[in-house]
Task: inverse folding
């Protein structure tokens, strides 16, 4: 095998390895913030990727910490969590037949 053929083969090998490594690299989970980045919990859930965390703001000077929504996790492997805990964040069902949750 000539030197130029060897170099061409090595370039191809490196290219294949680089692509394989980039595809195998784990993605980094993101924090999706409600309501500062997403207006509703559901919109954050809709945008979430596996491993992401939807962080729901707690009560504060400009926000009550009460969310009235019907939520569908869509079978996603994500975390839904309150920034301040259950004592300051409430999920209130949008329908009387549904039950609420404290997160």
Result:
């Amino acid at each position: 095998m000539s030197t130029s053929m060897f170099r061409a083969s090595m370039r191809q090998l490196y290219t294949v390895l680089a692509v394989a490594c980039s595809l195998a690299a784990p993605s980094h989970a993101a924090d999706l913030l409600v309501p500062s980045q997403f207006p509703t919990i559901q919109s954050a859930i809709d945008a979430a990727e596996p491993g992401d965390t939807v962080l729901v703001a707690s009560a504060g000077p400009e926000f009550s910490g009460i969310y009235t929504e019907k939520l569908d996790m869509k079978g996603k492997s994500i975390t839904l969590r309150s920034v301040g805990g259950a004592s300051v964040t409430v999920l209130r069902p949008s329908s009387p037949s549904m039950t609420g949750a404290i997160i």
Remarks:
- The chain has a mean pLDDT of 79.
- The two ends are 66 Å apart (CA to CA).
